[in-house]
Design brief:
Layout lengths: L15 H14 L4 H20 L4 E11 L5 H11 L4 E8 L4 E11 H12 L4 E10 L3
Antiparallel strand pairs: 1-3, 1-4, 2-3
Length: 140
């Protein structure tokens, strides 16, 4: 990645528990500042986005999602999204991690663009903590 030359100052609002966890990680990893940790996190996000952009053709994969099942309106929204993609969803597994956190694993097969679209729609919902799409190409 090219060296950044100009710095821009931004302001963000984060829940205290998220910032506390982030601070703990940057301390463990030895970052010199929050800013350096945030820059590294953004670089990783960009790399992951580019990797996801390369998901093309017939693919088999899995979507791993962690979400807060107490988030108002989230469960029906997730169900509706999955129904919109029932042509590519082969199976799903739901597990209760804690009182309010759930882990869902969705097995998918189809065109890479559709798999990415599903993952991105799930990812954009308020109350969804994490979504990871992992795929492999289908070869004859």
């Amino acid at each position: 990645m090219p060296m950044e030359t100009e710095l821009s100052r931004i302001g963000i609002s984060l829940p205290k528990n998220l910032l506390d966890k982030f601070d703990e990680i940057i301390t463990i990893r030895g970052y010199s500042s929050r800013s350096e940790g945030i820059r590294d996190a953004i670089r990783n996000y960009i790399t992951y986005y580019r990797w996801m952009s390369d998901v093309k053709g017939d693919r088999q994969g899995v979507i791993t999602m962690i979400y807060d099942h107490d988030q108002r309106g989230l469960l029906p929204t997730l169900t509706d999204i999955q129904h919109d993609f029932m042509g590519i969803i082969q199976a799903s597994l739901h597990s209760h991690v804690s009182h309010n956190r759930c882990l869902e694993v969705i097995l998918v097969h189809g065109d890479g663009a559709q798999l990415k679209d599903l993952a991105e729609r799930l990812m954009s919902q308020k109350g969804v903590e994490s979504v990871k799409l992992t795929t492999i190409p289908i070869e004859d």
